[in-house]
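Exercise: predict the structure of this protein bound to DOR.
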Amino acid sequence: MTTYLIKGARLAGGNRTDLLLRDGVIVEAAEKISGSGAEVIDADGLLALPGLVDLHTHLREPGREDAETVETGSRAAALGGYTAVCAMANTSPVADTAGVVEQVWRLGRDAGLVDVQPIGAVTVGLAGEHLAELGAMAESAAAVRIFSDDGHCVHDPRLMRRALEYVRAFDGVIAQHAEEPRLTQGAQMHEGVESARLGMTGWPAVAEEAIIARDVLLAEHVGARLHICHVSTAGSVEILRWAKKRGIRVTAEVTPHHLLLTDEKAGGYDPVFKVNPPLRTNADVAALRQGLADGTIDIVATDHAPHALQDKECEWAYARPGMVGLETALSVVVATMLETGLMDWSGLVDRMSVAPARIAGLAEHGRDLVAGAPANLTLVDPAARWGVDPAALASRSRNTPYAGLTLPSRVVWTFLRGVPTVHEGKAVR
Ligand code: DOR
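Solution:
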């Protein structure tokens, strides 16, 4: 196994460091290391960050390998600076049994580009009627800790209560896709001035907020851990702020696209901007950024949602919701949170690595880059700018909403347990 000596990188806090990586761990971290025999990487001008962790990735395998596979999604993740991703359960078949989560876990291990931690479904077939085999998934080789029907809301409050009670026994987490379905029937975009202007059926903010309000109260009642997926409205941020102040065990994520884009994008009828929850207003974007900066929203998660061409390049009403995001997430967070002065690199490391690793219980990730820590890290050029070309993405799908945009910061190297997965900006395989 090659030993790597990273020379002259800066840590998020600003200190310069050399890092010696051997046998999967950082064996030394100091201002000057002379590691003879090591392959030297000149990291002058680069930032060394703990590998990013994505709590919300759709890898589409099994079932929709035409849109993404565990391997292509893992490659996209590594190129985005990630060393671990949590794979959502809305595959086909649904990841609602020990067999399917173990299959995804094994595919991730075989691809070997990031650690793939499967998320199990809360209900059988995501149908919202019967609890899935949560215990069997937790005890499987995949050791599932997070359960989610993402794409669908667990809308029956009794079932939600039971799910929270069940996972409390092993400190598991229910990750809720907060959408009251009776309020979003036929919805195509955010309900507001833009939807009225375009004549499209709206998805009102209250459909998200009502479920979050209900579920933080249920989590308090049960004493269990709740995570809210892709928070998208200012009202949701307010409810979360209240719940956290009250000591309720709730965490929340925001996506890069909800930090940058608004519902005005729907005006061009390009389905690349169709996503669930929908893009909201400028006031929502401002509240989400503020919530992420002050810690009300704990993490950034991509909701990387690859879709095959025929599912996206069609009329808006028929297009599937979702955007790819793994390869652009870091850059969009830099543009929206760092370049605006709302957060610094240490904040980014917390929201994109440390906190998601803690929520998911991934002990090998989100660690300080010190001697003895697993060598899961990424080297980023903070001065780089790059143009997003959908055809150049490693994801099997092309549905990025950032085509043609120039974004700041670029991943140059990523290491998984001391082995490069990205080498000078290119995937190693
Ligand atoms: O836009 C979305 N796409 N939101 C979801 O919740 C599900 C996801 C998907 O699976 O495509």
